[in-house]
Amino acid sequence: DAEKSHYISKIKQLLKQQDAVLVAHYYTDEVIQALAEETGGCVADSLEMARFGNQHSASTLVVAGVRFMGETAKILTPEKRVIMPTLEATCSLDIGCPIDAFSAFCDQYPDRKVVVYANTSAAVKARADWVVTSSIALEIVEHLIDEDEKLIWAPDKHLGGYIQKQTGADMLMWDSACIVHEEFKAKGIVDLKQLYPDAAVLVHPESPASVVEMADVVGSTSQLIKASQSLSNPVFIVATDRGIFYKMRQLTPHKEFIEAPTAGSGATCRSCAHCPWMAMNQLENLATALEQGTNTIEVDSALAEKAMIPLRRMLDFAA
Ligand code: CIZ
Ligand code: SF4
Fold first, then answer.
1. What residues bind iminosuccinate, as annotated (predicted)?
2. Does residue 128 lie within any of the structural domains?
3. Could you say which of 27, 37, 76, 181 would form a disulfide bridge with 241 (CB–CB 3.0 to 4.6 Å)?
């Protein structure tokens, strides 16, 4: 509609004027993802977002996603201005892993390497030996097993449990979860599979173990998108944030993509396959942040220097 196109053309103009590039996560709304693509930015998972921002020549990065993604961009490229449509978009994993409690936990096990998921604060990353995202966690943990390391894993217990099962790693687990993925239910997937016997089940490992067990493919967002292209099934049941359907349908429009069932609807489901914090990224607040130069991400420089070490370690490992 008219309001939407007004904001879109305004944002396009502001991005150019300000030497800015838009970096969006797969879980943001379609209109934001489409705009990032149209303007030469990128749509990606958190690992690729970090890489893209790190390598791009623009002096301003506009990060559409949740807070830790903006912080990661700022830590990796402190010389750039990093802005976000909103500074209120957090993540249940970040909330579930406060630095003081986490640091005290780590202090009890000085012989263990500390591995944290990217979905954490800068302070938690600064306390870690390694940062991982879901697309590279398995490889990094296997590497650490080769080095005979014992681990502390935080914060996602489902992803951690999946990795432990796959690798046999000695991991002490922090107890936190993603409010979106934790709502998926194995029973609902069993029922759907009866309706769609040709369907392949794609599951993000932040989901509970019972749901992961139903999967034909378990993987990060980018890995699930690849599977939706390479598998020949005509139908996919997908257990991750529904924002991912934009890219899946764009790449294989002739296939059918169905949202995996969650606990219920309305009152019993807090987040029903769409992250409430990702959803806070809208055209209007994106335009306002660019126009007024607000919502700038700042990370304490001493903290940023420490957090950069495990982040760079991850990017170097992935390279
Ligand atoms: O659940 C998230 O926030 C994900 C999948 C982040 C990422 O690694 O892209
Ligand atoms: Fe955090 Fe889950 Fe939202 Fe991802 S989908 S940002 S893990 S709450």
1. 25, 46, 117-119, 134, 204-206, 221
2. yes
3. 27
